[in-house]
Write a structure and sequence with these properties.
With 154 residues, the protein is of the alpha+beta class. It folds into 2 domains: 85 residues, Orthogonal Bundle (Arc Repressor Mutant, subunit A), CATH 1.10.10.10; 45 residues, no CATH class. 32% of the residues lie in helices and 19% in strands. Strand 4 and strand 5 form a beta hairpin. The N terminus is likely disordered. The structure holds zinc ion (ZN). The site of zinc ion has 6 residues, from strand 4.
């Protein structure tokens, strides 16, 4: 899992001020106060690209390895607050794993139970799925499929 740091030691091609400003604007647009931790974590996630799945533990490890002291509880609560306002999605492939997903468009997942890796499946390639009749008084909101896979045995 790759989580890019906010301030790499010697990468002059990255405009950190612009990244932080983008994070502040996203937070404000979502109605969240732009605290230092929120700006730092959202900048990490923005730098990591559009379709990545992170555990809170991985983000915590990354932040602390790069000199940003933050507790795991703060990381988890911050990522949950991002999810609450639609900046992230949350994917829970089983009762022991929670991933935060930077791809907030409707999509599906491959979940490799051997490796714990989640991989996006574009929503457009799953059009052949036939849904059962919806219960009376309900309407379809979304369909999210989890295609569970494992490594082939040797
Ligand atoms: Zn995803």
């Amino acid at each position: 899992m790759t989580v890019y740091m906010l301030k790499p030691v010697a990468d002059s091609s990255v405009d950190y001020t612009a990244q932080a400003q983008r994070a502040v604007e996203m937070l404000e647009a979502a109605g969240l106060r732009a605290t230092a931790h929120r700006v730092m974590l959202l900048s990490y996630l923005n730098n990591a690209g559009g379709n990545n799945h992170f555990s809170a533990e991985a983000v915590y490890d990354y932040a602390n390895r790069n000199g940003n002291k933050i507790s795991l509880a703060t990381v988890y609560n911050t990522l949950r607050s991002f999810t609450d306002v639609g900046l992230l999605d949350q994917v829970t492939p089983d009762s022991t794993r929670v991933y935060f997903d930077t791809n907030i468009k409707p999509h599906h997942h491959f979940y490799n139970e051997s490796t714990g890796v989640l991989e996006d499946i574009d929503a457009s390639v799953m059009h052949g799925v036939v849904l059962p009749q919806l219960p009376t008084g309900t309407c379809l909101k979304s369909v999210e499929l989890m295609v569970r896979i494992t490594e082939k045995p040797n």
